[in-house]
C-alpha cells in the first residue's frame, strides 16, 4: 500500500514541478522587461534601451512559432513565444510615445511604407512596427506552408529562431558601447535576463529540447555576462550621465 501511495505522490509532485517549470518559462521570459518598462515610464527617457532588442525577439519568436508547425516541441515554449511578442509590442508602443513627447522640434514622420532603409526600425509611429512584423509573419507563414515537408528547411527555421534569440543581447551591447554608458538601461532587466537564460538553458537540456535550443541558450548567457561587464566598465560614465540628467 505504501509504495502505491509513494508512487502516486511522486507522480503528483512530478506534475507540480513540471507545471511550475512551464509557468516559469512563460512568465520568466516577460518578467525582465517589467523593470525596464517602469524605468522608461518613470524617467520618460527611452534612449538607453535599444528597440533592436524588441526586433530581435519579435523575429526569433515568430520563427519559433513557425517552427512549431514543422516540428512539435513543448507547448509552454509556444505560449511563451506568443506572450513575448505581445510584450515586445507593448515596449515598442511605450518607447515610440516617449520619444514623440521628447521631441523639441517636430521632426518629419518616418513610416514603414516610406521604404527608407536609413530609418528602418526607427519609425515615428507604432503602426509601422505592426505592419513590418505583419509582412514578415505572412511571408514566413507562406514559405513555411510550401516547404513544411522539407525537413532541412524546418530545422533551419528552428536554428534561426534560437540563434536570433541568442543574439538578443547584441543590440544592447552595441548601444552601451556607442554611448560608453549604460544609463537608461535597467540593470534589473539584465540580471533577470541572465537568471532566466541560465534557467531556460537548463530546462532545454533536462527536457531534451532540440539541440539548437540549448546550444544557443548557452550563447545567450555569454552575451548577458558581457552586458554585466559593461555595467562595471562604464560605471563612472553612467553615474555622470545620471547626474547630468538630474541636473546635479
Structural summary, described in words:
The protein has 248 residues and is mostly helical. The protein is 77% helix and 0% strand. It is built from ten helices and no strands. Helix 2 runs parallel beside helix 4, helix 3 runs antiparallel to helix 4 and helix 3 runs antiparallel to helix 7. The longest helix has 29 residues. The radius of gyration is 20 Å and the shape is globular. The N terminus is likely disordered.
What ranges have pLDDT less than 50 throughout 5 or more consecutive residues? 1-6
Give the helices and strands as they follow along the chain.
HHHHHHHHHH
Shape: globular
Q: How far apart are the termini?
A: 72 Å
Mean pLDDT: 85
Q: What Rg, in angstroms, do the CA atoms define?
A: 20 Å
Helix and strand content put the structural class at mainly alpha
Question: How many individual helices?
Answer: 10
Beta-sheet strand percentage? under 5%
State the helical fraction.
over 70%
Main beta sheet: none
Care to count the β-strands?
0
Name its key features.
248 residues; 10 helices; mainly alpha; 0% strand
Produce a short descriptive summary.
This protein is an all-alpha fold and 248 residues long. The protein contains ten helices and no strands.
